[in-house]
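In the design runs reported in the main text, the only information available to the sequence generator was the tokenized backbone. The following block is the verbatim input for one such run; it is reproduced so that readers can re-run the procedure and compare outputs position by position.
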């Protein structure tokens, strides 16, 4: 709405300003021709610019660098055509309005109206096109640099914090307790532990992964936690068509670990972590029973994930604390709607 109001104001000021400069009269009858032509021209070029910005947002920097010159040339040609079509429509409307003989239309159009486009307008449009595409290219470079930096942070964070040394230390302690009791159980435990770290390393440079694979990983992670906490924790999963969606790797594990890390649990009052889908999101929730004494909360994992969701999925991670429940909503992407250019 603001965009179209701005177009109307711009077209009004430009049209009547031009006519005043030409005739000394703010409101000559021909000002409406200029107003209609400028509005159609600005709207057409504006819509095309918005379309190309939205299109470019789905491509990575390498692809934009490859397409920038052909796109610039195409934009200029189309903008030039839109400008001439807008002028033609405006002049034709004026001929109809005043009842002028249409046999004079084409002669008048090419001699007095369209010839301006070969002069100052030609130069103005060229500078606008170059400036527009330079801005688009710089935006792509900035986004690419930011995404690469965030990917580096995430790869480092995955190994350093998300499945952190405390988890490995606790897992080895649990393993040392069961290795003498049940060799088969110990072997199974080791396989799960190695599977967790294999999953992290294999998907270290992956932006999106099928939801069902992430769920399988979370189940594996949670089963190791249950070896230590037994009946103190419980995981409930209710997802429809998990194979149709993708999420950021290790994202659900981060949210589950966050719940286990910051809440009190016991056999009498077990901590129940729920994972379910809701309106294009996968939700991880739990009842809040915060620990009285915990290590200083840095929230590095959650803030890191929030930024990656914003960069990769172009959506926001939703975090809510209400009715003594803590829940996080992670956006989902459907396979058929997914863009592979990240």
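Verbatim output:
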């Amino acid at each position: 709405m603001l965009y179209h109001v701005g177009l109307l104001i711009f077209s009004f000021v430009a049209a009547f300003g031009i006519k005043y400069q030409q005739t000394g009269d703010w409101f000559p009858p021909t000002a409406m021709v200029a107003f209609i032509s400028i509005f159609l021209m600005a709207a057409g070029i504006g819509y095309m610019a918005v379309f190309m910005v939205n299109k470019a947002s789905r491509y990575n920097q390498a692809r934009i660098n490859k397409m920038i010159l052909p796109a610039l040339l195409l934009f200029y040609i189309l903008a030039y055509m839109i400008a001439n079509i807008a002028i033609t429509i405006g002049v034709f409307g004026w001929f109809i309005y005043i009842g002028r003989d249409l046999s004079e239309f084409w002669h008048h159009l090419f001699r007095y109206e369209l010839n301006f486009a070969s002069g100052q307008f030609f130069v103005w449009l060229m500078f606008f096109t170059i400036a527009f595409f330079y801005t688009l290219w710089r935006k792509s470079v900035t986004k690419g640099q930011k995404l690469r930096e965030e990917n580096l942070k995430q790869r480092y964070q995955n190994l350093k914090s998300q499945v952190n040394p405390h988890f490995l230390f606790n897992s080895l302690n649990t393993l040392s307790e069961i290795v003498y009791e049940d060799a088969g159980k110990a072997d199974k435990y080791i396989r799960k532990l190695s599977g967790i770290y294999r999953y992290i390393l294999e998907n270290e440079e992956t932006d999106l992964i099928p939801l069902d694979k992430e769920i399988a990983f979370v189940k594996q992670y949670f089963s190791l936690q249950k070896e230590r906490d037994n009946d103190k924790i419980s995981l409930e999963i209710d997802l429809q068509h998990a194979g149709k969606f993708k999420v950021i790797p290790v994202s659900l594990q981060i949210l589950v670990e966050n719940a286990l890390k910051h809440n009190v649990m016991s056999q009498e009052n077990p901590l129940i972590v729920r994972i379910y889908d809701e309106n294009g999101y996968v939700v991880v929730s739990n009842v809040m029973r915060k620990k009285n004494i915990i290590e200083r909360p840095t929230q590095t994992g959650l803030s890191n994930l929030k930024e990656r969701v914003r960069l990769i999925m172009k959506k926001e991670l939703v975090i809510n604390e209400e009715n003594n429940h803590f829940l996080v909503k992670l956006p989902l992407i459907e396979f058929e709607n997914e863009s592979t250019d990240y």
